[in-house]
Design brief:
This protein is an alpha+beta fold. The protein has 3 helices and 7 strands, in the order E-H-E-E-E-E-H-E-H-E. Strand 3 and strand 4 form a beta hairpin.
């Protein structure tokens, strides 16, 4: 099992969460909530209003999201879903645990130094330069105050 940190449309209550609970695509078990140890820019970009974490450590905000334990099948699905490695790149990042729900997991989370875990995160280093000038968010909600509604793939 691998740990994945999701910060956008794959979170609970967001438009693509359905994929995280679709066991035909693999297993994804919610473990808890966290935030990036380092700051990153989280922008909403493109004509489909997609959330992107730009891989520019030290700039932006500590990004809030959810931690999942996923099997190899789900990891492969997520790579494909996220257009890895062209649109997003899957990299290991340090995630501070904010709230832990994993079974027997409190000990697991505490075992990590200061509640910090390494998780795979889909961020991008391949983006148009003008995206750096977009507003930065610390948390993503597809129906947030930003007014930039996410366009589902089925509707594109």
């Amino acid at each position: 099992m691998a740990r994945v940190f999701v910060y956008g449309t794959l979170k609970k209550g967001q438009p693509n969460y359905k994929h995280m609970i679709n066991t035909a695509k693999g297993l994804a078990k919610f473990q808890g909530r966290g935030r990036t140890v380092e700051k990153y820019p989280l922008v909403i970009a493109g004509k489909y209003n997609i959330p992107y974490m730009l891989n520019i450590p030290g700039t932006g905000h500590h990004i809030a999201g959810e931690i999942y334990s996923v099997d190899e099948q789900m990891l492969q699905f997520l790579d494909e879903f996220e257009g890895c490695p062209d649109m997003y790149q899957r990299t290991l990042m340090r995630i501070q645990v904010v709230e832990w729900e994993g079974k027997g997991g409190a000990g697991e989370a505490r075992a990590a130094a200061d509640g910090v875990l390494e998780c795979f995160v889909y961020s991008t280093a391949t983006y148009p330069p003008e995206w750096v000038g977009l507003p930065y968010y610390d948390s993503y909600d597809s129906s947030g105050k930003h007014g930039l509604a996410y366009v589902l793939r089925e509707s594109r």
